[in-house]
Design a protein that fits this description.
The complex is a heterodimer of chains A (277) and B (244). With 277 residues, chain A is an all-alpha fold. Chain A has one domain (51-276). Helix content of chain A is 68%, strand content 1%. Chain A has helices spanning 19-29, 31-45, 54-74, 82-109, 111-114, 122-138, 140-149, 161-182, 189-202, 218-221, 225-238, 245-269, 273-276; one strand spanning 10-12. In chain A, helix 8 runs parallel beside helix 12 (245-269). The longest helix of chain A has 28 residues, at 82-109. The radius of gyration of chain A is 21 Å and the shape is globular. Chain A starts with 9 loop residues before the first strand and ends with a helix. A six-stranded mixed beta sheet of chain B has the order 5-6-7-3-8-9, sandwiched between helices. A three-stranded antiparallel beta sheet of chain B has the order 2-1-4, covered by helices on one side. Chain B is α/β, with parallel strands linked by helices. Chain B is globular, with a radius of gyration of 20 Å. Chain B is built from eight helices and nine strands. Chain B has one domain (5-243): Rossmann fold. In chain B, 45% of the residues are buried. Helix content of chain B is 36%, strand content 28%. The chains are: A mainly alpha (277), B alpha/beta (244).
Chain lengths: 277, 244
């Protein structure tokens, strides 16, 4: 029973100086808790609904239908594979908006646990994002279904979405950590964030083509990281096209910088959460 | 640091900052800042606490409500990081602060054993190994596949205690846990704690009851308003506390 007598873990509050790397180490040691929490969240999420996990796939599909009905009749955008254009844009944006809005409530929602057991705090945030990641993967099922109906010709470029999703995840984790740090200090931030998300959604080409943006604004418009990630995702998936180098660079820079900043900000403040939650 | 030390605090201080008036939202916050009506009060839940405990020793912490007993446990468990001074802990800590924090009421008892076990730092393989003994000890075999929300408070506490103490921990932090369950179960818990103590576990035991402190612990610590009022053997401190 005492197999680890010789290598007992040591906690010394005087040595908690580099929270940025401490957290990575702690997370590595606690990776099985992260897996358990993702599993638990996933299991309890649809516990009290009849269709259960089917909603993960049905929801984006229904959303897409609404957009197709409204925009292909009212505005007549001329976009090839319009239903898939909407669906793919929504997959990316929903992952972003759901992950961040859930992440910002994680610290408050887990206050009971936070005040009683020590865990690396990023576990709570990553568990929330993890389940949205699973949801994102599940939405590929309705996507493939519509792709078959729409006779979309897939090319080898499809594999490029793997690095794209990786860069997107870096960005999403970074923003989630930032908003999750702000909320315990400013409870109203969740209301503000929902407005920001709505604005952000309209500034991202989810249901309209980019060419409706006026010439003189396009430069600024293309600085939007979500524009970059959505385009990086669509080009290889829908149009068999290798995205431009500038998009890759933009996606990489936003991903790495936001992730590093978010991680730094969150771990610097995470010891305060138990005092505030 | 001495090899035998399990827990040491040096001039430990933990404080909470609270606004002098309740603030209900951002708007009010801005208004009050503008009017300069806000004062932040610092409340020291613990201050100048020095404590040293060798491996295998047991200490009973007594004090009135709000004396800082639970805060001290939280500081040892790394939940609250010190604002002043230092905490040093060597060994795997099993915090039993309000049993069952970390349980999920929607999941079954079976799933919760894994969840709670993981939270306490046990791997899945380890939990599987211990699973039968946990269920056995909790006396909940018939209900183990029902959701936790159908359990009574006592049943939840039994499951929590059984899971939390399934492995002999290096350090056990126990907060008023023996108020759990019926007499028989309380005796079982006491036995288990004494058994671990005999086998080298360090125990920090918080209780209102001087008698249970005397039964379990060798050392005693009396906290008052976040400061140490008295230290000594469990016997001395418990008697002094009871007499106050």
């Amino acid at each position: 029973m005492q197999e680890n007598l010789s290598q007992k873990p040591i906690y010394d509050s005087a040595k908690l100086t580099n929270s940025f790397f401490e957290e990575i180490k702690g997370l590595k040691e606690n990776s099985y808790i992260l897996r358990r929490m993702i599993y638990t969240n996933f299991k309890t999420r649809y516990k009290r609904s009849y269709l259960g996990v089917v909603w993960s796939m049905l929801n984006p599909l229904l959303n897409m239908i609404v957009f197709v009905i409204i925009f292909s009749n009212l505005f007549r955008f001329d976009v090839p594979h319009y239903p898939l254009y909407i669906l793919s844009g929504n997959m990316i944006f929903t992952f972003f908006s759901q992950s961040t809005s859930e992440a910002m409530m994680q610290i408050i929602a887990n206050a009971g646990m936070l005040r009683r057991v020590y865990l690396p705090k990023t576990v709570y945030i990553l568990a929330g994002i993890g389940i949205n990641g699973i949801n994102l993967i599940l939405t590929f099922i309705p996507f493939i279904l519509i792709a078959l109906i729409d006779r979309l010709a897939l090319s080898w470029t499809v594999i490029l979405i793997i690095p794209v999703l990786f860069l997107l995840s870096l960005f999403v984790v970074g923003i989630s950590l930032i908003v999750a740090t702000i909320t315990p200090f400013l409870n109203d931030f969740s209301q503000i964030w929902s407005v920001i998300i709505t604005l952000w959604m309209y500034l991202t080409p989810l249901f309209y083509p980019v060419n409706i943006i006026p010439e003189h604004l396009i430069g600024i418009y293309q600085l939007n990281p979500m524009y970059i990630y959505v385009t990086l995702f669509r080009d290889p998936l829908l149009y068999a096209k290798i995205p431009e180098l500038s998009l890759w660079l933009g996606g990489l820079i936003y991903g790495v910088i936001i992730f590093a900043f978010g991680w730094w900000l969150f771990t610097k403040n995470s010891n305060e959460f138990a005092y505030r939650a | 640091m001495d090899q035998n030390i399990a827990i040491q605090t040096e001039d430990l201080g933990i404080c909470f900052k609270m606004p002098s008036e309740p603030i209900s939202g951002t708007k009010e916050l801005f208004i009050k800042i503008a009017k300069k009506r806000i004062k932040i009060n610092t409340f020291w839940a613990l201050r100048h606490v020095n404590l040293s405990l060798n491996e295998g020793e047991s200490i009973g912490i007594m004090g009135k409500n709000g004396a800082g007993k639970s805060t001290l446990l939280k500081a040892i468990a790394r939940v609250l990081t010190p604002k002043e001074g230092r905490v040093y802990v060597r060994g795997k800590v099993f915090p039993m602060l309000e049993l069952g924090a970390g349980f999920n009421m929607e999941l079954t008892g079976h799933e919760n054993i894994y969840l709670y076990g993981n939270i306490l730092g046990l791997t899945n393989e380890k939990v599987t190994q211990l699973y039968d003994s946990i269920v056995e000890f909790s006396e909940l075999r018939e209900f183990i596949h029902s959701p936790l929300r159908s359990y009574s408070t006592g049943m939840v506490a039994r499951l929590a205690f059984a899971t939390a103490t399934a492995v002999q921990p290096d350090i056990l932090l126990a907060d008023e846990i023996l108020s759990v369950g019926d007499k028989d179960f309380q005796d079982k818990c006491m036995d288990r704690m004494r058994n671990y103590l005999n086998n080298g576990t360090t125990i920090v035991f918080v209780s209102h009851s001087p008698n249970s402190v005397k039964q379990i612990c060798k050392k005693g610590l009396w906290l008052e308003h976040g400061q140490v009022r008295m230290t000594g053997s469990a016997e001395e401190v418990a008697d002094a506390y009871a007499a106050s």
